[in-house]
TrEMBL record:
<dbReference type="InterPro" id="IPR003812">
    <property type="entry name" value="Fido"/>
</dbReference>
<dbReference type="InterPro" id="IPR053737">
    <property type="entry name" value="Type_II_TA_Toxin"/>
</dbReference>
<dbReference type="Pfam" id="PF02661">
    <property type="entry name" value="Fic"/>
</dbReference>
<dbReference type="GO" id="GO:0016301">
    <property type="term" value="F:kinase activity"/>
</dbReference>
<feature type="domain" description="Fido">
    <location>
        <begin position="8"/>
        <end position="124"/>
    </location>
</feature>
<protein>
    <submittedName>
        <fullName>Death-on-curing protein</fullName>
    </submittedName>
</protein>
<dbReference type="InterPro" id="IPR006440">
    <property type="entry name" value="Doc"/>
</dbReference>
Length: 137
């Protein structure tokens, strides 16, 4: 990937959790948050594991949901963090609440397992794919 990607850090995810929950989050496992944050940056033999921003976002979303690093609010935090990550990288999410709910639930229930599968579902829910104005939550 030649473009610079803006990645989230721990403070970003904690702020997303606070926004999603309306209170400070209770962290069950700090290492699992770190693991989820590292996944979009992964590479092997000099090649990025996730070659584009949407696939990186899918890896982040999937990891934050399935790692269950927080006592409560993992899915809500994952969705807010993914929207932030995509927005920072110029790819706003314009999905309806139902589309977001279905995507998150499919990940949480194991119907979408790989980052590629998640990215295939996430990509059409972005402004770059739909070319329509951003919906304000």
């Amino acid at each position: 990937m030649t473009d610079q990607v803006d990645y989230l850090d721990l403070d970003d995810v904690l702020a997303c959790a606070r926004a999603a929950l309306g209170r400070p989050p209770q962290v069950r496992d700090w290492g699992l948050i770190a693991s989820a944050l590292a996944r979009p940056r992964a590479s092997a033999l000099g090649n990025e594991a996730y070659p584009d921003v949407v696939t990186k976002a899918a890896a982040l979303l999937s990891s934050l949901i399935t790692n269950r690093a927080l006592v409560d609010g993992n899915k809500r935090t994952a969705l807010v963090a993914t929207r932030l990550f995509l927005g920072l990288n110029g790819v706003p999410v314009v999905a309806s609440d139902d589309e977001k709910f279905d995507l998150v639930l499919d990940i949480a229930e194991g119907r979408l397992r790989s980052a590629a599968e998640v990215a295939d579902r996430l990509r059409p829910l972005t402004r770059s794919a739909r070319q329509r104005p951003v919906a304000v939550p």
